[in-house]
Amino acid sequence: MRKTPAKVLGAFCAALLAVNSAAISVFAEEDIAPAPSSDINPIIFNSSDDSVLYWATQIGTDTYYWSDAPTGFSVGDNGFIYICSADNIYKLDKFTGKIVGSAKMEGQAEYATKGPKYADGRVFMALDNGMIEAFNADTLEPLWIYNNKLGGKPTCDIVYNNGCIYTGFWNSEIADADFVCIDVTTDGETGELSTKTAKWEVTNPGGYYWTTPAFIGDTVYIGKDNGSEDKTVTDSEQTDLIRVDDSGNATVIGGLIGGDVRSKLVSYGNELLFTSKDGVFYAFSTDDSYAFKYPIAEDLGLDGFTCTSTPVAANGRVYITLGAPWGDSRSSVVVVLEPVKDDIGYQIAYTVETAAHCQVEGIFAGVDENGYNVVYYVENGMPGTVRVLRDKAGMYHPYETVEETDYSGNVHQYLPAVFTPQGAHANYCSVDPVFDPETGLIYIRNDSFNILAIGPAVKSVDFYCDDITIHQNGVPTLVYKADQTPTDCECVVGVEGGYTANVEDLYENIAFSVDRFTTDDEVLTVTYTAGLYNGSGNPAVVTCDVNVLVAETDDQYNRALAQKGDVNGDGVINVTDISLVAANVKNIKAIDKYSRNAADVNCDGSINVTDVSAVAANVKGIAKINSER
Q: Whole-angstrom Cα distance, residue 351 to residue 353?
């Protein structure tokens, strides 16, 4: 039987990882799907079949020359994603991926892996030549411009904290560039584009690249490049973290760092954790009582490996990644660290390979039902695979690895892949992914110029309607008339798991095995297709089979839907019904399939003297029959 799209009016929003389904009336035309709750559980993908690409939106089109390459992006709690391409800023509905607004900027950010920052009803975008422009988040109306005296590329995220924004610029490995703090508590909205000045600026030879600050009270800690064209510098040239007080007075701490700090600074307990490009891990106590340095790449014998990895710290474990240089055939690794017992510092618990360098920030997705930390990594190599690490304190190997063969025919044990972009969506990824708890989606922008929205697969679909449901032989069965369609009655769609944005999704996602019913139909197959494809590249489809009983005449239809004991379907239980059941038992006259449900009073699958007795007891007022069909 041909499957056709259902003209279903309805909406649903099932909580992620929930065991209950959200049921939606297919005729509730006024219903609009609510935004998913902000307290839904993190996404846990056990395999590639558990993940689904729900939408993909391309920003920019010139993927060959990269003249309008999109930047990184920001996911706001106002329901929108902000991203830039060439000299345009775009506003996307984060539930559907649809572009709902755009505006021209005063400049652009070429080849930028960092993007706009949404905060407090505004959007801030760092642009080439040391510029920052602010916009109204609702209208994208420009508010003000900041111009830095040293210029530079916008190579750092913008961070919003306590009424100020912070970011750094980069000119070259050795040229001066500034890290800036701008007070944005007032915009000076006059209808004209105004000019902002910085609250403070800190100049550094080599500037700032891929790092963000940490905030301890009123103190700001900043990582920086080492001011050298070498990946690392000698002990006599060691560089430092920068500490800036609320008045903008900058001092240095540490004295340990030889390489460029190209990770974010992570505050974890009483420590600041970060890495440097030369494969070194650092832990600074925020009270300056100790500074720990661990040359991991050197210790592991990974000559030439680099690190731009922001540490992921959770439940007594720290996770970083190291990658082989471009053109190097060696695999990249995730390093799992644990604190040294009764001492200061960290030691390696184990390492595990990935197929390509995971240069961008890992996503800590929470703790699964078995107590494992769940961390996702996106590879900066074709096709941009998402891999998962499960681990907890005390382990010396990951929960799971998979055997894969690389392009040279070498066999490796890699972290399992849980999502692989397909076709035009496949590409390198050097932009930090974002997990948004409001939608429950992971957003990835890779070099395909697409933003990909990845979420959990639908676990099951159900289709039912109380008004036309009987329990023939104890099995729920829907009763239709011949030539009706599956949605001619007020049916309900129930979906467990998955994600949907609004009512329009159901028009495309539900299909039925029957266009119009005939009396030969006994089973209706309902198919729900979620998103574009699952993590393995296959259609993300779930189905359910629903028993149906199709009547040719009104009399058959009424008898099929009659209550238990009302065998002739006239609306009353009387001696006529006793006679009909008794005649069937005595093989005088068989009851047809339309009256069998009413005659099988005790739902045991057969019509016998027990049913005769039950109908007779109801007629005599001795024992009432349960009215459920």
A: 7
Q: Classify residue 93 by burial, with Cβ atoms within 10 Å: 0-12, 13-18, 19+.
A: middle
Q: Are 187 and 203 in contact (CB under 8 A)?
A: no
Q: Tokens for 352? A: 């595990």
The percentage of the chain sitting over the pLDDT mark of 70, rounded to a whole number, equals 88
- Please choose, from the candidates 383, 386, 385, the residue with its C-alpha nearest in 3D space to the C-alpha of residue 374: 386
What is residue 501's predicted lDDT score, i.e. its pLDDT? 64
DSSP character string of 39-59 = TPPPP--SSGGGEEEEEEEE-
Q: Is the pLDDT of residue 17 over 80?
A: no
| Rounded Cα distance, 6 and 24, in Å | 14
pTM of the model: 0.86
- Distance, in Å, from the CA atom of 425 to the CA atom of 403, rounded to the nearest integer, reads 24
pLDDT for position 335: 94
Of 370, 296, 603, nearest in space to 470 by CA: 603
Distance of CA 9 to the CA centre of its chain: 26
First to last CA, the chain: 29
Does 161 lie in the same domain as 20?
Answer: no
Q: What is the CATH number for 120? A: 2.40.128.630
Residues 209 and 168: their CA atoms lie apart, in Å, by: 7
- Specify the pLDDT at position 291: 85
Domain boundary among 185, 209, 233: 209
- What confidence category does residue 25 fall into, taking pLDDT thresholds of 50, 70 and 90? very low
Q: Does some domain include residue 144?
A: yes
Q: Identify whether residues 581 and 545 lie together within a single domain.
A: no
Tally the residues of the chain.
629
Q: Is the pLDDT of residue 523 over 90?
A: yes
241 in any annotated domain: no
Q: Is 581 helix (H, G, I), strand (E, B) or coil?
A: helix
- Across-strand partners of 510? 528
* Distance (Å, whole) CA 490 – CA 468: 9
**Which two structure tokens, joined as six digits, stand for 257?**
């760092």
- For residue 545, the cross-strand partners are 525
Beta bridge partners of 122: 119, 136
Judge if the upstream peptide bond of residue 205 is cis by omega within 30 degrees of 0.
no
User: Do 67 and 184 share a domain, yes or no?
Assistant: yes
Q: Does 594 fall in a domain?
A: yes
pLDDT band, very low/low/confident/very high, at 247 (cuts 50, 70, 90): confident
Q: Which residue has the tokens 């609510």?
A: 34
Strand (E) or helix (H) holding 614 = helix 609-619
Last-in-domain residue among 209, 242, 276: 209
Helix (H, G, I), strand (E, B) or coil at 597: helix
- Domains in the chain, number: 3
Domain that holds residue 607: 564-619
Domain identity same for 521 and 582:
no
Residue with tokens 């422009």: 133
- Contact by Cβ (8 Å): 389, 354: no
Residues 464 and 532 in one domain: yes
292 within a domain of the structure (yes/no):
no
Q: Is the pLDDT reported for residue 487 higher than 90?
A: no
Tell me: pLDDT of 496 over 90: no
